[in-house]
Amino acid sequence: MGLRTIVLKLNKPSKRKCLVIDEAITNYNRAYRFLLEKAYTELKEIKDAFAGTKGTQNALALSKWVSSERSKELNQFDVQPFKDALKLEVGMTLAGYFRLKALRPGTSFPLANCRTGTEVERLRPVYFCRYDTGRSYCLLYDSEKNRYFAKLHLLNAKHANKVVPQQGDQEGKLTYIHRSAGVVERGKSKEAYIIVPLSFGKYQEEILRASLERPEILRTAKLGRKDGSYYLAISVDTGKAEEIRTETYLGVARGLKNDLCYTVADPEGNVVAAGTLSRTGQTSKNAAVPLDELHKAANSIVEIALEYKSAVILQNLLEKGDRLHWADDFMNSQPIYNCDAYIRMARLLAFKLPEKGLPAPVKVSSVGIFYSCHVCGCNSKLNRFNKDTFICTSCGATLEIEKLGSLNLARKLINYRHSTFKIKVRSADDGVWFISRLIGLNYFVPHHENQIERLREKISLIVDDILLQSSETWNRERNKKASIAKKIRSVPDFMKLIEFV
Ligand SMILES: [Zn+2]
Questions:
Q1: What CATH number does residue 313 fall under?
Q2: Cross-strand pairs, 425
Q3: One domain for residues 138 and 272
Q4: 401: CA distance to ligand 1 center in Å?
Q5: Which residue, of 235, 265, 295, is where some domain finishes?
C-alpha cells in the first residue's frame, strides 16, 4: 500500500461557504483542545487502562477513552459531524505522546501546541476519518463539464440548511465518485453539507481520473486554510510501493552483440555488478524489437534496480547519437536496439520503475559513452580499437565496447558531482604561479601573501566574469568555461574541486 497525499484547492467558495468552513475549523479545534485538557487530568488512568500488551498505547485503543458521556459533552461545540475523527485524532496524539515520553521522560504534554481562536490559518485542519457519501466527505463528478467537487459534511442538524438549487447553478448534474455512482439530489431536504468545486494541477487530475474507476483509492482527508485559500488534502492509496531510497546507479546502454548491457556502480563509482540482457531464441538482426520483448527487457531492468536499490540511468537518444555503430563493417555494424526501440523501452521504464517505488529513469547525453576511458577519462575517437574493443590511447586501459557504455552511464552523475578541475602550480623565486587554461587563469601570488585565499578571490572574480558574458556565440571553449563556472558556483566550497598539479 502506498499512501500519497494530493492537495486540491477549493475553487472560490461563496461567502456563506467560507463562513461554514471557518466555523467548522474553529469548532473542531475547540473540541480537540477540550478533549486534550480532559485527558491531561486523567493521564495516569488512561495510561494504565489502555496500556497495550507491550506497554505501548495504540491510537485506536486510546480513542476509546472518549466515553459516550464525554462524547455528548462535545455537542456544546457543534462538532457532531466530526466526533469519530476527533476521537481518532486525540487517540493518535496521546499514542504519540506516550511513545515519546517513554523515550524521553522530559517530553511535555502536547496541550501547549494546541491553539484555539479565530485565526483559522493557524489552527489544525479538520480531519475526515473516512470517505463516505452520507457523512464525513466525498467527491462528486460532473461528467458533462469534466469537473470535480467536494461534498463536505460540516454542519450539524441544527444548522443544516434547505438549499434551493438555482437556475444555471454551476453544480449541474453531479454524481458521487463511489461504486454506487448515484446522482446527488439537491433541494429536497435540509443539507448538513456544502458542495464546493475543486481546482488542481495535472498530477492531481490523473489521480482523480483514476478514482472514477476505482473510488476505493480515496481515503481520509484534511480540510484547512492557508494563505487565504481553502484546501482539501486527500490521502490516496495509489497501490504503488513505498518509495525506495536508492543506493547505487544502474546504467543501461545499447549493445552490439547483446540487446542491452548494464552496470551497477556504487556512489564512489566502483562496479558492483554488470551483465547483459538478450532475448532467448532466434532473433533476426535489424528487425524491429516486438513490444512484448521490450516489456520483458524493462521488467528485467526493474528487477536489477530493485535488487541493488538503483537509480536507473539511460541514454538520451532523442538529440544526439551514441556512435555505437562501426562504420568499417557494414553488415554487423548496427546496435541491436535501434534508437526507436531503446526510446520505447525507456518509456516503459518511466512507469514501471515508479510502480515499484523507484525513481523514474534519468536520461543523460550519450555523447562519448563508447569512447571515453573508464580509468583516465580520456575521450577520443581513436580509443575505439575496433568494433568490439576499447583501448585507451592515453593510459592503455581496455574493455569491451559494450560494457564501457553502461559503465560510463552508471558513473555519469557521479562524475558530474565529483569531477575536479586541475590548476597548475609553478614556483618562482618570490612566489607562485597558478595556471588554468580552462578558466583563463594565469595568476601570480608572492610568498608573503596567503596564496590560497588570494587564489580563491581570483577564481571567484573569473567565475563572475564568465557568467556575466553573454552566450550569443556558440563555441566549444566558451561552453566548457561556462559549465565549469556554473559548477564552481553550485558547490559550497569550490576549492575542494581543485586538483593542484
Ligand atoms: Zn585511459
A1: 3.30.420.140
A2: 434
A3: no
A4: 14
A5: 235
Q: Averaging pLDDT over each range in 251-265, 347-361, 433-447, 482-496, which range is the top one?
A: 251-265
Same domain, 397 and 317: yes
Distance (angstroms) between ligand 1 centre and the Cα of 400 equals: 14
Per-residue pLDDT band at 441 (split at 50, 70, 90): very high
Grouping H, G, I as helix, E, B as strand and the rest as coil, residue 446 is strand
Q: Output the CA 364–ligand 1 centroid distance in Å.
A: 22
Q: How many A from CA of 484 to the centre of ligand 1?
A: 22
User: Quick one: 284 and 367 in the same domain?
Assistant: yes
Residue 84 corresponds to which amino acid?
Answer: D
Q: Are 148 and 109 in contact (CB under 8 A)?
A: no
The CA 399 to ligand 1 mean position distance, Å, reads 11
Kindly state whether residues 223 and 263 are assigned to the same domain.
no
Which structural domain, as residue segments, surrounds residue 394?
248-418
Distance 377 CA to ligand 1 centre (A): 6
Ligand 1 center to residue 412 CA distance, Å?
16
Neighbours of ion ligand 1 (CB under 5 A): 373, 375-376, 378, 392, 394-395, 397
Q: What would the grid cell of residue 462 be? A: 573569473
In sequence order, the 6+-apart residues with CB closer than 8 A to the CB of 157 are 80, 190, 192
Distance (Å) from CA 391 to ligand 1 centroid: 8
* Number of domains within the chain: 4
State how beta strands 498-500 and 421-428 pair.
parallel
pLDDT by residue (tens digit) across 119-164? Answer: 888 899 999 999 999 999 999 999 999 999 999 999 988 888 777 6
Using the structure block, give the residue that is written with the C-alpha cell 477540550. Answer: 34
> 390 and 278 share a domain?
yes
Q: Tell me, what's the pLDDT at 416?
A: 56
Flag whether pLDDT at 329 surpasses 80.
no
Q: Which of 2-6, 449-453, 471-475 is predicted with the least confidence, judged by mean pLDDT?
A: 471-475
- Ligand 1 geometric centre to CA of 398 (Å): 8
Does the predicted TM-score (pTM) go above 0.70?
no
